[in-house]
Amino acid sequence: MPPVKVLTVFGTRPEAIKMAPVVQELKKHKEEFHCLVAVTAQHREMLDQVLRLFSIEPEYDLNIMRPGQSLEEITIRALEGLVRVLDREKPDLVLVHGDTTTTFVAALAAFYRQVAVGHVEAGLRTGDKYAPYPEEMNRRLTGALSDVHFAPTCKARQNLLQEGVPAERIYVTGNTVIDALKATVRKDYSFTDPVLASLDFTKRIILVTAHRRENWGGPMQEIFSALREIKEQHPEVEIVFPVHKNPRVRDMAEEILKGIPGVHLIEPLDYEPFVNLMARSYLVLTDSGGLQEEAPALGKPVLVLREVTERPEAVQAGTVRLVGTSKEVIVAATKELLEDQGSYLKMAQAVNPYGDGQASKRIRGFLRYYFGFALAPPPEFTYLGEAQGQEIRDKGRL
């Protein structure tokens, strides 16, 4: 049987991080899979950082990023470019990840050319098409176009079943971000950024990220004002905020937070220094989706600066807490974790339900079955609770 041609498509840093272990796993088995990579470069600089880290050289780079680009422009340029790639390569499967515009457009292009679609990190839902925006609908629309759904958790599987996806097309893998994390975090990592290199990590570090489109404006002003008050109430902590390059985020962050001693507004970090910084932080405040999966694997409590999350498993497990964007609520929740050791340990020691670092191998195993190389798929990922969580922590947590 000839190798199956798999075209993996991604365009942003989060996609690249989570797809890199899958690409590496497929490329190890050239007798079964001919894996090609196409990037839209929806985010250029941040994407390139991850490609270098994981030594991935795309066969196709559409380089669509433009200053101030709109969602419509991203969609049009990505669709036109990906259709040309599909016409040239004629893959057996297009593999996409998550919830970006690139993800949805790649699935749409594959549908137009009647090529099967595999969706990694399928089935996450908030139920609100505008939160997160546009990611919720990108993910739902990709799901409607997909033939194989790689759900990270049993909850994600349940969401897909409720939407009418046949059970035999859903396979629970755990999340590939844990695969990437375990390959990247090191106890002996040295920071080259001068601010990070000079930080005293015997102090408690609060790591912050904030960039979500739905938080622009008033909600983000509340978030940044909360950070200012947290620092005023707890002068002993250090706040590190890699600030997104979008002017709507950056201008407001500098207006409210610049110049405050102990609040470090730094440039966005490459993935490797970022996750190693997270591993040495005390607490994470974020409106990101992926950090809700990554930080708990390192034993770091997460306060989520959003009103809803498509990752309810983490809330249920106790590894993250939804606090929204109210200044008063953010300050109170942070104060509790800084002053109440019992509350902190309850979150820090809760079991991360998102995986064991073997998701990429499971995806390859299912594709072997799907394309006829195996008689049965490998066992799915199962979240077994504290016993499994302790084993994972013993093996991989810092």
From TrEMBL:
Keyword list (alphabetical) reads: Isomerase
- Which InterPro entries does this chain map to? UDP_GlcNAc_Epimerase_2_dom, WecB-like
In terms of Pfam families, this protein maps to: Epimerase_2 (PF02350)
Tell me its EC number(s), please. 5.1.3.14
Query: Enzyme group, top EC level?
Result: isomerase
Q: Do the record's keywords include Magnesium?
A: no
- Superkingdom is Bacteria
Asked if Nucleotide-binding is a keyword of the record, the answer is no
Chain ranges of the UDP-N-acetylglucosamine 2-epimerase domain:
26-367
One GO MF term attached to the UniProt entry: UDP-N-acetylglucosamine 2-epimerase activity
Give the family from UniProt: Belongs to the UDP-N-acetylglucosamine 2-epimerase family.
Classification via NCBIfam families = wecB
Supply the name of the protein. Answer: UDP-N-acetylglucosamine 2-epimerase (non-hydrolyzing)
